[in-house]
Backbone:
């Protein structure tokens, strides 16, 4: 078990790709169960947790629009529905791990999950439930990164933790550029100025405006989520100006 948590309430941003495991598409049940167990470990540290999940493992709006000729707004709506599928899969895995959960969708679909209601979501977390926010912001042209920053602000989170494929923010893709530089700490302004591809600009600006630190870490390192919440392990923190 990790040390004592330094954050009381956090938002975990998961990409859809994080749920694929070694697959090229869709969901890998073993990977989802492992992620659920890591979330359970952090929950047992006394941390209130909410989540935003992407849908890129099933359908990505921009790519779908460009590839198929579907108009952008429709393609983004399809991508938002993909995030609901992922949210329901995570809910099932978290409940198997012994946690109480709620899925709230920005697009109302009452037969499968709750509509997004801010005060209700806060109350769920206060009661110890993990809240999974689905369907992004409910609007086309906005990414799930922006949804994560928005929900983190609305929930009064102490930090936004972005789980990625690498252990922090690099100057370039370390899988493609062997001499890419890894950063330990960055300011919001530097991320925007240097166009570092960690989150889209609107998400970074929203986090900066609300003074929410962004911690970027690898979802593939076992126990990394608990370590980062305790202020340990390998991650890059994006926060206020130098």
Residues:
């Amino acid at each position: 078990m990790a040390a004592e948590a330094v954050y009381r309430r956090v938002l975990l941003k998961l990409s859809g790709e994080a749920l694929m495991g070694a697959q090229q598409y869709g969901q890998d049940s073993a990977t989802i169960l492992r992620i659920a167990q890591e979330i359970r470990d952090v929950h047992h540290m006394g941390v209130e947790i909410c989540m935003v999940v992407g849908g890129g493992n099933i359908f990505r709006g921009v790519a779908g629009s460009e590839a198929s000729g579907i108009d952008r707004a429709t393609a983004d709506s399809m991508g938002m529905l993909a995030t609901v599928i992922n949210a329901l899969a995570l809910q099932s895995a978290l409940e198997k791990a012994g946690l109480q959960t709620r899925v709230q969708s920005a697009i109302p679909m009452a037969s499968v999950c709750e509509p997004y209601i801010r005060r209700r979501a806060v109350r769920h977390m206060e009661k110890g439930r993990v809240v999974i926010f689905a369907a992004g912001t409910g609007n086309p042209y906005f990414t799930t990164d922006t949804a994560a920053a928005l929900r983190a602000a609305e929930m009064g989170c102490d930090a936004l933790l972005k789980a990625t494929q690498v252990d922090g923010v690099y100057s370039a893709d370390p899988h493609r550029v062997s001499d890419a530089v890894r950063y330990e700490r960055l300011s919001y302004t530097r991320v925007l100025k240097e166009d570092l591809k960690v989150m889209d600009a609107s998400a970074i600006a929203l986090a900066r405006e609300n003074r929410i630190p962004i911690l970027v870490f690898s979802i593939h390192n076992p126990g990394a989520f608990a370590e980062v919440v305790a202020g340990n392990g390998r991650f890059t923190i994006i926060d206020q100006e130098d």
Notes: The two ends are 33 Å apart (CA to CA).
